Give the backbone structure.
Amino acid sequence: MKKLILIISLMTISNYSFPELKYIGILGKDDNVQIFINTDYEKKGSFVKVWWLLNYKNGTKNSLGKVIYSNNTLHHFDCSERKVVLLGLVQYDDLMGKGNIIYNKDVSYSNDWEIIYPNSIMDGIRSEVCN
């Protein structure tokens, strides 16, 4: 049932423009990759589920060799333990989570919690949503 709900959520979100996005910053030396978080996230105790978006101004190739311009991921943060797990992702052929879906994946069954390292991208997102 959880998997069905996430798949429906991924499909619903595919053409949804995020009016509640907050700009976090850029990756790398140029401004090709911008990071945004959806400020409408779910928080229960020390756990937070949040969608965040990477915007590739010049495009980038995904693991299948297809060009994408934005990557929207759903992560579950354990704020007290400083860990995170990926629950789902959707990749688009246009900026800001718009256009056609190039690839999507539901990994809501995953229990592969990862440590959040200080001064990493995940640590920056964790700081935004866990405080």
